[in-house]
Amino acid sequence: MSSATSAISMRGAGYYSANTAGAKTVIDKAGDLVAEAIAALPVETGAGAFALADYGAADGGTSLDLMRRVVGLVRSRAPNRQIAIGYTDLPHNDFSALFRLTQGLLGDATKTPLAATPELYISGVGTSFYRQLFPDATLDLGFSATAMHWLSKKPGPIADHVQAVGANAAERVAFQAQAAEDWETILAARARELKPGGKLVVANFCVDGQGRYLGNTGGVNMFDTFAKHWRALWTAGRIGEAEYRAATFQQFYRTAEEFAAPLKNPASQAAKAGLRLDHVSTHVTRCPYAKDFERHGDAAAFARAYVPTLRSWSETVFAGALDPARPAPERAAIVDAFYGAYEAEVAATPDGHAMDYVHCFMSMTKESRG
Amino acid sequence: MSSATSAISMRGAGYYSANTAGAKTVIDKAGDLVAEAIAALPVETGAGAFALADYGAADGGTSLDLMRRVVGLVRSRAPNRQIAIGYTDLPHNDFSALFRLTQGLLGDATKTPLAATPELYISGVGTSFYRQLFPDATLDLGFSATAMHWLSKKPGPIADHVQAVGANAAERVAFQAQAAEDWETILAARARELKPGGKLVVANFCVDGQGRYLGNTGGVNMFDTFAKHWRALWTAGRIGEAEYRAATFQQFYRTAEEFAAPLKNPASQAAKAGLRLDHVSTHVTRCPYAKDFERHGDAAAFARAYVPTLRSWSETVFAGALDPARPAPERAAIVDAFYGAYEAEVAATPDGHAMDYVHCFMSMTKESRG
């Protein structure tokens, strides 16, 4: 995951990947689409290095195995072709963790480091994917997972909830419009970066055909639970009204139709740049912590494992909503109390809690012209 | 500056550039060689982006103005040509500081951020320059300043000094041999990265024709002063013998002849790869703090400004030599005492203290063949 402004950030140095086993499962699942895309590329005959990008890669941990698979697929057909991987994320991302992880200086010491692959060149780009990140027509393959739900800006407040899924109708319209504009911007930039014939495979959070989305797949709604515990801090007088209202995820979960829209509209920038939709589908990936709980049945252990994974990507939103005039230890105590209450609820009534992932998988081709 | 192993590192986030005004002066001075190199490149007709690398760039601060100059030179001849800058350094380098600095999120807010240049693409490569860092034949221009004196490994101990300039004859031979081998490795990797006709401009610490080197230009010898104060900690019983001996800069200052050697030897890897020497010269750059002192004459102020710039690049060597079994606050106190003693000496007897830079500037071309 990646955020789109410096106001929103993740905790650094390995914390992210270790707490996002589910995100890795999604990426591995998207690997089949990536393999299909590579199968259609002229790997043997292409000029120069086979170049790919991973947009919103964080520390690169969750996509490491996918990158290994890509390298294997390319080298099976072109054993000597050089490969260049460009990992992108926001400027404040921990790129040092990324370089150390890919070089085996951090993380799983039992595996051969990705960077030990002969003739593989790894770089980082610390720039928002709302900008073009690579020169024109330089990428064979673009990939992104669980990143592009972050909007380029917050289009307005959400007064009585924390995420657009709980916004009122007028608030929702503003988020939806921002998401549509942002998606056009993202696709247009990617279309410029791709070589003619290049492929783009993305796996993004979505609302699926049954109305399911992250943490809302039939059980307890995760975002409603966030909102409930945040509201409880307000009603208890622990935080002020402005702090209550300020906790808003700068995100939007698009539907498959919304994702496909620019590619079906010949007047869109992406379509005019030659980007064509090859595949779109939605996928639910079971929460690994809820799955573990089904096996072990220990509610307290589930709560202790589950809430940190939520915290890893949500904490900055709640911490950032607090009045900066409060001393740092006070802010930390409020955030601890917030996640503590969530954890206590899960421990007391664990059934139905799950951060199941709901993704829209897409594959696109930039048409060769002339 | 950049170091060659993870055991040696710099202090992060802006500290480096702010304390290395002299390093920036050197880079600006090398800008004329860079401008000459660009003048000889087919900027108007080259395919794709104009691609350059800055090897051992740290946070990118000291080369920012040079990069602005390069962009200006390229765009004056090819106003629409895309430009790609790849900044390299070791994996633990603070690349986030680099991205924030180039995007204007850190540093001088009065200047237009480099990254705001239209059609400019910035990336980071967190890999040692002892490896090839970019795919074959992808760079128009390589640049590096004050980085390649760091060796790939420590070839042996220096028993009674901290740097090879104070080594005994046998110790010196080992460092010199390692430096020769390392320089061949560096040039061979750069030769592969350059496009045919591409240019490489480097400014490296050296021993010049008069035997001058960093901090040794006729006044008090800086490395001897380091060695003296470190020895004093040992003789005072503040550090142990092993700690005294372990403080060794993994560096070597080559002569201009040593720098030129592989390019004059047709059997070297670099020469075989087509790398040809166009220019070599040595330059002394006055210590900005000593210059300031000449003007203001305040010895205490000089010492307070001067010693931190030494500390910025040397601290990890001394801190790293201390027994890790010592509690961290104790180690910090020893390091503070060490630089404190150096500062007290400068304050008491300021004359002759100066970290004048002594550089070897080189310009090379990768010959176009066939």
TrEMBL record, chains A, B:
A Pfam short name: Methyltransf_7
Keyword field: Magnesium, Metal-binding, Methyltransferase, Transferase
Keyword match Magnesium: yes
Gene3D superfamilies: Methyltransferase, alpha-helical capping domain, Vaccinia Virus protein VP39
Superkingdom per UniProt: Bacteria
Coiled-coil positions: none
Gene Ontology annotations of biological process type: methylation
Any one Gene Ontology molecular-function term assigned to this protein's record: methyltransferase activity
Protein name: S-adenosylmethionine-dependent carboxyl methyltransferase
